[in-house]
Amino acid sequence: GIQVEQSPPDLILQEGANSTLRCNFSDSVNNLQWFHQNPWGQLINLFYIPSGTKQNGRLSATTVATERYSLLYISSSQTTDSGVYFCAPASGGSYIPTFGRGTSLIVHP
Amino acid sequence: EPEVTQTPSHQVTQMGQEVILRCVPISNHLYFYWYRQILGQKVEFLVSFYNNEISEKSEIFDDQFSVERPDGSNFTLKIRSTKLEDSAMYFCASSEGTRRYNEQFFGPGTRLTVL
């Protein structure tokens, strides 16, 4: 199956800082989602982005499918951004996403 | 905004007991899924369900697991004889259904603890 690598595994920021999270994947993808798992364990949809760039407030994402990576940008980080960010691409004939191990983000006030 | 709901939020059971986890997918969605996340690990796919039958399943989804859509709104995951290693967060998800557009929306999860 598809291999998914997320970096960095851990990230600590001061409130107001910007960051870029990376997701590399081993195969061509049919779709790709980014999720935020908050401290209560809930998985929140951030982006459905098989290709191109999308923006939603302080967050944006870019997927370059031909080069097999996706990036999640967080600008002006807030303490509520803390949690784990998962990338989940789906490849081949299956549309089932495979989750990476995530990037654990802590934003300090 | 429509959302996926799951009950119960927490379930504690004894090893060997049967448990049923319940989910209500988003009403116009046609594909349903179960995932699990063992504490501190990544989210793993268990099974997908469409048109009243399993469409895909992972190696984890062995004979002790079963899924059902007993009525027009609920989607359930049954674990027949729970093991200690079944302790995890179980997530239900749903999507609109066309395979070309498969954005999945997740429920809040059921935390299962097997003692």
What keywords describe this structure?
heterodimer, A: 109 residues, mainly beta, Immunoglobulin-like, five-stranded mixed sheet, 0% helix, 58% strand, globular, B: 115 residues, seven-stranded mixed sheet, four-stranded antiparallel sheet, 49% strand
Q: What's this entry about, in short?
A:
Chain A has 109 residues and is mainly beta. Helix content of chain A is 0%, strand content 58%. Chain B is 0% helix and 49% strand.
Question: What features would you describe in this structure?
Answer:
The complex is a heterodimer of chains A (109) and B (115). With 109 residues, chain A is an all-beta fold. Chain A is built from no helices and 10 strands. Chain A starts with a strand and ends with a strand. In chain B, the strands form 2 sheets. In chain B, strands 2, 4, 5, 6, 9, 10 and 11 form a 7-stranded mixed β-sheet that branches. Chain B is globular. Chain B has strands at 5-7, 10-13, 19-24, 31-37, 44-50, 53-57, 65-68, 75-79, 88-95, 105-106, 110-114. Chain B has one domain: Sandwich (Immunoglobulin-like). Chain A binds chain B through residues 30-31, 33, 35, 40-43, 45, 48, 86, 88, 90, 94-102, and chain B through 33, 37, 41-45, 48, 56, 89, 91, 99, 101-106, 108-109, 111.
